[in-house]
Amino acid sequence: MTDLARLGAILAAHAGREGALLPILHDVQAEFGHIPEASLAPIASALRLSRAEVAGVLGFYHDFRRAPAGRHVIKLCRAEACQAMGGESVQARLEAALGLKLGETKNDVTLEAVYCLGLCACAPAAMVDDRLVGRLDVGAVETIAREVRG
């Protein structure tokens, strides 16, 4: 099945559904691993929205990706509690250990900012792939870097 056919199947599954934009974007990302730029116009057309409206929603929600993520995804919490507990230094150490900045993908690792993981009592925190990690310190950062580098 081609990418266009796969996108068409997603759009058809949501045809006539009120408020379908977010469910469609979630399904597209689940299918392709990101929201391909070429999918914005067909989504907009199917929902009778402008391409700018679709792009605006896509840009507003941090979990939607415009490019494929790496095999490993690290989501570093940037919320107030994590910042108060040393989040800036954890970010700097993690960026140095991985050789990338927030928002980048390199060597099959993506480093993303999130704005709460619900681990405020264990701040600073991150999610490594699907695993929550709290009380990040130098040792934890080194362990994470080793894990994702393989």
From TrEMBL:
<keyword id="KW-0001">2Fe-2S</keyword>
<dbReference type="Pfam" id="PF01257">
    <property type="entry name" value="2Fe-2S_thioredx"/>
</dbReference>
<comment type="similarity">
    <text>Belongs to the complex I 24 kDa subunit family.</text>
</comment>
<keyword id="KW-0411">Iron-sulfur</keyword>
<keyword id="KW-0408">Iron</keyword>
<dbReference type="InterPro" id="IPR002023">
    <property type="entry name" value="NuoE-like"/>
</dbReference>
<keyword id="KW-0479">Metal-binding</keyword>
<dbReference type="InterPro" id="IPR036249">
    <property type="entry name" value="Thioredoxin-like_sf"/>
</dbReference>
<dbReference type="InterPro" id="IPR041921">
    <property type="entry name" value="NuoE_N"/>
</dbReference>
<protein>
    <submittedName>
        <fullName>Formate dehydrogenase subunit gamma</fullName>
    </submittedName>
</protein>
<dbReference type="InterPro" id="IPR028431">
    <property type="entry name" value="NADP_DH_HndA-like"/>
</dbReference>
